[in-house]
Design a protein that fits this description.
The chain has 22 helices and 23 strands. The protein is an alpha+beta fold and 783 residues long. The strands form four sheets. Strands 12, 13, 14, 15, 16, 17 and 18 form a seven-stranded mixed β-sheet that branches. The longest helix has 82 residues. The chain is flat and about 140 Å long. The relative contact order is 0.05. About 2% of the residues have low confidence.
Length: 783
Amino acid sequence: MFRDVFSSLRVRLLLLVLLTSLPAFAITIRADLEQRRLGTRAAVEETQRLVRTLAAEQDRIVGMTRYFLTALARLPEVRRLDGPACSALFADLLRQYPAYSNLIAIEPDGDVFCSAVPSPRPVNLADRPYFQRVLRTRDFVVGEYIIGRITGLPNMPLVYPALDESGRVVVVVFAALDLSWLNRVATGVRLPEGAAVTITDREGVILARHPDSGRWVGRPAPFFNNIRGAGEGTFEAPGVDGVRRLYAFTTLGDPARTGGAYVAVGFPVVQVYAAVNRITARNLALLGLAAVLVLLLAWAAGDLLVLRRVRGLLDVIGRLKAGDLTARSGPVRGGGELGMLAAAFDEMAEAVQSRIAERERVEEEVRQLNLTLEQRIADRTAQIEAANRELRQAREGAEQARTDADRANQAKSEFLSRMSHELRTPLNAVLGFGQLLEMDDLTPTQREGVAQILKGGRHLLDLINEVLDIARIEAGRMSLSLEPVPVGAVIQESMDLVAPLASERHVHLLRAETDDISDRFVLADRQRLKQVLLNLLSNAVKFNRQEGTVSLSYQEAPGARVRIGVRDTGPGIPPEKIGRLFEPFERLGAEQAGVEGTGLGLALSRRLAEAMGGALGVESEAGVGSTFWVDLPSAESPRQRLERAGVALPAPADLDDSTRVRIVLCIEDNLSNVKLIQHLLAHRPEVRLIPAMQGRLGLELAREHRPHLVLLDIHLPDIPGDEVLRLLQESPKTQGIPVVVISADATPGQAGRLIEAGARDYLTKPLDVRRLMGVLDSILGQA
C-alpha cells in the first residue's frame, strides 16, 4: 500500500515541491545563527566600550584632582598648619565638590590637623602605605581603594605633598575620591535595563555597584574568579543578584598604585539574545506558512496542469475502445510528453477513421483545421496579452528596483562616510607609535616588522580615503585643497610607486625629458592629482603587453593649461567602446582576461580631474596603444609668488641653544593622544610637557607657566578650542605664545580660519611625526 501511495503523480509532485523548500529552511536557520553571533559580538563590543569609558573617567578625575590638590597645598591656612581655619575652608570646598567624601591636611608625622568632615578623635595616618609613599617620592600619589578612618566610606586616596624651599615636606593634602562618581557616569551613559556596573578591590569585595549600590557594598563578587589576575577581558556569569550577564572588565588606573581594583559592566544575557530569538521564531513561522501555501498551490496546479490532461487522455482511450472514432484529445497546448501522447492518439484515430470514409475524413480534417486555426488565434491573442501584462509588471519591478538601489546607495554613502571618520582615529595611534618605534635602535628583524606595521597602516589609511572619496562623490560633497603643485615631483613620485608593478609585469617605464618641467606648477589637489596619475599608470601597466612600454609626457595645452599624458603599447580600445570607458563598473570585458579591478578607477579619475577645474580624456588606436591625458590649469610657484610680493624667505632655525629648558603646554582631552605627544617629546630631553585635558585649565596653566609653545586640540569637553585660541590671543600674558592646532578636521576652510585667528600652524590627525617634530624644532629654536 505504501508503494501505491508514492506511485501517484500528485504525491510525487508534492514531494518534489517539499524537497525544494528544504534549502530555504537551512538558509534561514544559518542566517539566524549568524544574527545570534553578530548580536553577541555587538553586546561584547558595547560592554567593552562602556567599561573603558568608566576607566577613562577615573583617569580624568585623578588628573583633575592633582591640579586641585596643587592649589590646596598653596593656601596660607594649610601652609601655616591652622587647623580650625583650614577645616572650615575644606568643609566649604567639600560642599562644592561632591565627588570627594573628605578633604584632609596631614602633618609630616602623620597627624591629621585639618578635615572637612569632623573627627570625634585624633587620627594618625602614618601607617597608611600611600602616606609613606608620598613622603618617600615627594610627588603626587594615587593610593589603593580603602575604607576611610574618618568617614567610614570606601574611597580612593589622592595625596600631594607641599615642600618648602629646601625640598622638605611641610604638609600633605589628601582628597578621598568618593565612589559615587560611578553612579553619575553610569546614569549619563544610559545603561540598558538590567545592566550593572561593579567595582571590586583586588580580593573581589564589592566597593561600589550601580544600581543598588548600598545593598551590595562589602559582599564578595561571585564572578571575581573570571577577573583575578587579568588586565581586561570578557566573560559570561551570574552577578551578585543571580542574574546571568555578559561582562566586560578592566583595571582601574595603574594596578601598582590603586592596588588592583577592577570595574566590570554586564548586560543581561536574556536581553542580548531576545531580539534574535524573536526573529528566528518569526522567520521559521513565515517559512512554514509559505511552505504550506506552496504545497496547496502545487496540489491545485498538479490537478490543473497534469492530472486533468491525463484523465482526458484516459477518457479518449475509453471512447475509442467503445467505437467512437471521432474522439480526440483536442489541440495540443504546451507540447511535452503529454502533448506528444495526445497527438499520437489523435493520429491513430485519424488513421482508423480514414479507412472507413475518405470523404468524411477530408471534411472532418477541414473542420478540425478551422477549429485549430481559431484556437491558435485565440491562444496567440492570449499569449500577447499575457506578455504585455508581464512587460508592465517587469517595468514596474525595474522602477521599484531602481528606487531601492538609489536608497541603498544613499545609505551606503552615509555609512561609509561615518565609518571612514571613525577608523581614522585609531590609526592616529597606530601610525604615530609605529613611527616612534622606527626612530629607536632596532634589530633588522624588528625594523622590518615596524616597516610592515607602517606600510599596513598607511595602506589602510589610503583605503579609507578612497572609500570616503567614493561616498563624497556619490553624495556630491567632494572637498579639495587646490594649491600650486610641482608637476615634475608628482610625476616622479607616481612613477616610483608604479615601478615595482611594471617590473613585475616586464613593462618599461619611460619619462619624456623636458627642460622646464621642474619649474612648472599646476593648480590642483596634490593627493588627488597623484591618485589620478597612479590610476592611469597602473592601468597602462596592467593592460600592456609583455616587454611593452609606458611613457609619461608633459606639454603646454591651450587656455593656460598643462597636459600630462600616459601612453601605453597595449591592444588599444575599439572606437565603439570608448564611449563606455568612463562609465562606473564598465570594464569592457577586462574581467574575462583575468585583470583585477572594479571599473571605478577611470570614472573616479575623470570626476576628480573635473572637480580640480581640469579634464581627462583618451586617444586610442586598436592594435597600437592608447594615450590617456589630464589637462589642469597652470599655476605660479610659491617661491615666485613670494618673490613677486617682495617677501623674504625664512632662514633655517638656529637650535644651538639646546640646553635651555623649553615648556610645551598640550591642551588635549584624548588620553592616547597625550601619551603619543609624551613619547614624541621623549626624544627632546630639553622639552618639558605640561598636559591639560580641559580648555579652562589650559588657560590657567598658560598664564601661570608662560610656555614656549601651546599644542591645542579643537574639540574639548568644556569650551571649544577656537575659543581657547581667542582668549590666549586677547590676554597680555599669553598673546605672544605660539599656538599650533592639532585636529582630525582636515578641511582647508577650517585650517585657514584658525591660521587667520592667530594659530602658528595647523596639523591634522593622524599626525605626520616628522612634520610635527620639524614644527616643534622650528618654533622652540626661536624661543
